[in-house]
Amino acid sequence: MPSAVKRPNKTLLLDRDKCISCAGCVGTCPDLALDMFGVDLQVFQDKCTYCTICVRFCPVGALSIEKSKL
Ligand code: SF4
Ligand code: SF4
User: Fold this and answer.
1) From the CA of 15, how far away is ligand 2's center (Å)?
2) Residue 6 lies in a domain
3) Structural domain of residue 50, as residue ranges?
4) What pLDDT does 4 receive?
5) How many distinct structural domains can be found in the chain?
6) Is residue 1 part of a domain?
7) Is the CB of 61 under 6 A from ligand 2?
């Protein structure tokens, strides 16, 4: 069944070319939607509320929120 609960038409995007794997953003997320596996940052879209805290934190601008045109 499609999730229609809190899914705004948004996606948290990670630019892996910019990410320096500092892991700093992981601790800023109040919803535990970020985690590091080795040097790979994982984004759990199902947990993300698109609060933008991590986007504003990231020192290299590797995170952004894409808004759907819908
Ligand atoms: S936008 Fe907010 S909820 Fe989503 S991963 Fe970043 S800090 Fe967590
Ligand atoms: S804060 Fe930015 S550079 Fe650091 S792990 Fe997160 S996305 Fe990567």
Assistant:
1) 9
2) no
3) 12-62
4) 46
5) 1
6) no
7) no
Rounded to the nearest angstrom, the distance between the alpha carbon of 53 and the centre of ligand 1 is 6
Does 56 reside within a domain? yes
CA of 54 to the centre of ligand 2 (A): 8
CATH of the domain at 50: 3.30.70.20
Compute the CA torsion angle 59, 61, 63, 67 (nearest 10 deg).
Answer: 140
- Could you state, in chain order, the average pLDDT of each consecutive group of 10 residues for the chain (70 residues)? 61 97 98 97 96 98 86
Handedness of CA 43, 45, 48, 51 (dihedral sign): positive
Verify whether ligand 2 is closer than 6 Å to residue 33 (CB atom).
Answer: no
Are 13 and 65 contacting, i.e. CB atoms less than 8 angstroms apart?
A: yes
